[in-house]
Amino acid sequence: MRLDVPAGLAACSGCPDPLAYSSALDDVRSVFSDLCSVFAGQGGFNFVVAGFGEWRATVRTDLMVVLEQLPAILAALRTEQPAELDFFEQGLQRTVWIRTAGGEVVLSCTSRLPSWTPPGDEIRMPRAELENMLKDLAQAFLDAASVACPGMASHPWLLAWANELTVRGHGKEEP
User: Fold this and answer.
1) Which of 59, 40, 83 is nearest to 137 (CA)?
2) Is 15 helix (H, G, I), strand (E, B) or coil?
3) How far apart are alpha carbons 55 and 49 in whole angstroms?
């Protein structure tokens, strides 16, 4: 899983006003939604999800729902608890189940659509590899936001989310 960012990305027009959010009506998901919409409208961004076949994941919706789940998934990995990554939006409607087994994780996938069945039962990989993949996805998103919508990249909700992840350059780095 990764976010491909267009080469030569520059500041985008149409970035939302970071002061326009209401703490009564919005949260970090609103920031994700707006940034993912800007990225999708800009073109050249590609959200790649593979492992159980290559999926047609979208920047506008699928990336957004993955980003909001990252803190809970990374916390579960750190504490060796099971987790799920739910692609619940219309289109994919799949869940990746994550179980830890010592230094490894075991991934399995289910679909809510009868037209798609995952190829293969499970994927095993080092836990650190999955953690790094998820952190790299978050870092690519934050780096793109810093360039495309610099005002949004310093929004307190986005900074708090990044701190939960302990992503490089945003929050405390884990040893």
Assistant:
1) 59
2) coil
3) 6
Q: Where are the alpha helices (DSSP H) in 9-126?
A: 28-42, 64-78
Q: Which two tokens stand for residue 61?
A: 């919706």
What tokens were used for 156? 């307190």
3-state secondary structure of 129: helix
Query: What is the spatial distance between Cα 81 and Cα 122, in angstroms, rounded to a whole number?
Result: 17
Q: How far apart are the C-alpha atoms of 33 and 17, rounded to whole Å?
A: 13
Nearest-angstrom CA–CA distance, 105 and 164: 21
Residue 24: partners with Cβ closer than 8 Å, 6 or more residues away: none
pLDDT above 90 (res 43): no
- Between CA 50 and CA 53, with CA 51 as vertex, the angle to 5 degrees is 70
For residues 121 and 109, is the Cβ–Cβ distance under 8 A?
Answer: no
Helix (H) or strand (E) holding 67: helix 64-78
At 122-173, the pLDDT tens digits run: 999 999 999 999 999 999 999 999 999 999 999 999 999 999 987 544 444 4
CA angle 69, 75, 76 (to 5 degrees): 90
Q: Where are the alpha helices (DSSP H) in 79-155?
A: 127-148, 150-153
Q: What pLDDT, in 10s, does the model give residues 80-119?
A: 999 999 999 988 999 999 999 889 999 999 999 998 888 8
